[in-house]
Amino acid sequence: MNTITKLVVLVSLCVICSKANAQDTLKVATNQFQIDKLQLLKEEITKEEKEYLKQEVENINERLEKGEITKEQADELKQEAAKKRALNIENRIAIVDNKIALLQRNEEYYDEDESSTEVGISIGSFSGLKINRKNKPKQYDKRTTSALVFAIGLNNAIIDDVDFGKTPYSFNSGFVELGWAWKTRLLKESNAVRLKYGFSFQWNKFSPKDDKYFIENGNMTTLETFSDQLKESEFRVTNLVVPVHFEFGPSKKIEKDTYFRYKTTTSFKFGIGGYAGFNTGTQQKLRYKEDGDNVKQKIRKDYNTTDFVYGLSAYIGAGGLSLYAKYDLNTLFKDQLADQHNVSLGIRFDLD
How far is CA 98 from the centre of its chain? Predict the structure, then answer.
């Protein structure tokens, strides 16, 4: 037994020593890998700052061509930009050199997370090594911006020979729109007129009254009375559209040394235009009781709804909040006895 015990102890010591050596080797290898990455980062820093300087010089030349500054002022600004970028290179590389020195001097103790993930530099608040893209100079004249668009409100239909107040759809019929829009300034020296365009999903919902629901009979779609009392009757049409609006309104010009912007976050605005797209789906949802059980049906079918949708829309408001209206020029259903046109009124949010 003593012999066996000695063998077990000997093998255990060998394994422990092997693991320790492997861990030491791994630490050295990990530190060397980080050092190699930091060496490459020094080259990237120089390239990045030179590219930023190039962009700043282009901005200065643009201001010179517009007559906003003189040749002497342009030369002075270029010298200041070159000096700033040279100091940036010097300071950022010094930070990297200090990190390399730290890893080389303490390679078995400084296997840290801050150097084992993304490599870069954060100027301002130092948090490990991470490149802060805010160092990139701003574009001198940014004529196009983008924003998330969200709208919600009431939905109904204008029907031939039917008073709007007597439509078969209840007041809680609603719509939701969600999309992305770009806004481009059309005038060179003014922001009074903008073109707004993008893409949106529109969900138009109709809630029939009096236990009515839609029935598709061949090419005809009609509202019929359900056999039982309906807890819910909802008819929803989903469209993917491309909205285009001309937007008018004042704005405040913000001028800096290296760029300028037009601010509209609190200004009055008015937009008018339209949209066109496709019907991507139609669904009817019914909820009722049958033999004491709650039943919920979702029926997805064509229901003879129009495939190509197009219409007019407008909004008026201030900043990111507007009153929004849209009207489908296409009929809701194809080849029906009475034409129905979707109409919506609600609130629109342009989340710049």
Answer: 39
